[in-house]
Each structure stands twice: as structure tokens, then as C-alpha cells.
Amino acid sequence: MDSAAQEILTLIEKVKNVDLPEKLRERVLVRLNQLSKLTNSPSFLPEFDRMEKYIDWITVLPWNKRTQDTLDLENAKRILETNHFGLTDIKTRILEYMSVMKLKQEKGEGADIYRAPILCFVGLVGTGKTTIAYSIAQALGRPIARIPFGGMGDPLDLRGQSRMHPEAEPGKIIKSLRDTQSKNSVILLDEIDRVTDAGRASIMGVLVELLDPKQNHAFSDHYIDFPFDLSETLFVTTANNTTNIATAVMDRLEPISMPSYTDQEKITIAQQYTLPASMKAAGIPSGSLVIDDDVWVSIVRPLGYDAGIRTLERNIDGVVRKVAKIIVEGKAQSIHVTSENVREFLPQ
Fold this sequence. Notes:
By secondary structure, the protein is an alpha/beta fold. The chain has helices at about 5-15, 20-35, 45-60, 75-85, 90-105, 130-140, 155-160, 170-180, 200-210, 245-250, 265-280, 295-300, 310-330; strands at about 105, 110-115, 120, 145-150, 185-190, 220, 225-230, 235-240, 255, 290, 335. About 45% of the residues lie in helices and about 10% in strands. Helix 1 packs antiparallel against helix 2 (about 20-35), helix 4 packs antiparallel against helix 5 and helix 11 (about 265-280) packs parallel to helix 13 (about 310-330). The longest helix is centred in the C-terminal third of the chain and has 20 residues, at about 265-280.
């Protein structure tokens, strides 16, 4: 048996032994049998390479793999409180949605399918839209994948290209499922309002299909060219504002406004969350850095009002880096930041 025939047999065995939809398996096996008759044709190698890549993709997708949901409200409360300060109304809404998911169980084919309205967190930059989506996934015990929409201009980014095109590959939805290895994963559609003007209408059309439970049970990626059931996937979306989001898409979302933080809330976040995390990341022992209470105003608002906490995080990281340098140089083992010396530590 020549090497070409052997490689085709290897692919046939791979397709037979992997968990695939039966119709897809039959389709691929027919194509491989046809390909086995072309081993002496000049078109064999490119077609074989194309088929091998396709089989590599379909055999790693979670057609029937899912994770077990952790619908424990007490555990979810602990995770949300640990990861986020304040946002009481937001946390309550998330716990309500988890309660809905627990109550509205619908029996699927051997699995429990939980459905809930699709959340859309709307707010200014740095207010925690993305991080709270990760907390939802953690609370549910599901893997999460993030798809950034900023600057996206082509719906094929989501839906993939036909295998007839050179260098074709699946879209970001299928890639997310491959990465999470779970058909009931959380997929974060981040900043869906920031697509380009030229591609907005067509991308919004794909979003309607993704977010509509009456349509997404048979989502078709152009590369895979076989329906994939997304009805168990939990989509979470974020946006800076809803002005540029199509009405048909908004109709399928539950918008939740993310509030801006007051200076006092930022100080609490910095003291309880950001500073300890930054010190740990930099390897600075607990207690080696003390910041006076009256200094925090300068750290929180060095350049004027900021709705989010990105600037605050950058300032604290800057302070921590300078402290780390002092400790490594042996100039001191602990640092006390006061109103007199704060300018020495704040990033310029």
C-alpha cells in the first residue's frame, strides 16, 4: 500500500473513532473514499491537505461535550463579592438570572439545558463590563472565551470562510468552541457597538442569528459547513453605548447599565482589591508598602475625573514598580508613602 493510501486510511479511522454527528461523519467518509481514487491525480495533494485540515477541525469540536453547571447561589455570591466591590444591583440581577437558569430547566438529549436572557453590560470604559462577564463564567463553573468586536468589519470573522478559498479557516465562534471544549461555554461578545461602519449591517445580521434561541440551534459556519448547536452556549455582551447596535439585536438582549465609580468607591477598591493584587503580582511582601489615607485622593484623581478604574490601576502599578526597585536595590525593605513624598512614587 502506498503512503497516500495509508494516510487516507488513517484519516478514515480518525473520523470513525471520534464523536461526530452521524450525518457529518457519513459526508466526510464519502469524500475520503472519493479522494482515495485520485491518488495519482495532480490535484490530489492540495485536496488531501485541505481535507486533512478540515478533519483536524471537526474532530476537535465539542459536538456533545458540555460542562456541569454550578448553580449554587451562595457560591456565586462569594465569587462576585470577592471579584467586585459594590455593584449591588448588578450582582442581584446576575443572581436572579442564575435562579431563572436553575428553574427553567428544559430536558435535552441526555443533558440539562439552562436558558436565560442574554445580558448586555453597558457602560463607560473601565467600569468592569468585561471582568464581570468572567465572574459569571466562574460562578457557573463554565469555561469562557472572549471575542473582541472593536474594529471588526467583516461578518466572515464570525462565520468563517468557505473551504474553497485558499487559507480558509473557521470563524471566531467555532474557534471559541474549540478553545473552551464545551458546547455550553460562556462566550463574551466584547464591545459589540465598536464594529466598523462598513460592516455593521452584516455583522449585526450574524449577531441576530447567534443570539436568537430559535435560530442558534443550527448555526452554520462557512468553513465547517454543518450546523452546530449553540442553544446551550451562554452569550454575554458588552457595549460602551447602545446607539450603534441594531434594533433587532437589542431586542434579543437584556441591557444592564454599569455605574461610574465615585472617588470614595475607587479608594475602597484600590485599598481592598487593586493594591493587594498588584503587590502580590510584583512579589512585594504584605505590609512592605503602606499608603497614608490622605494620599489616595492624589492616586485616584491625578488628572481629573475618570469614570472607570483603569487610570487608578495604572497609578497603583506604577507606585508598586517603584517600590519594587527600591527594595531590590537594597535602599529599604518597607516603604511608607505620605503626602510629602507621594510625587516620588506617582507615575509622571
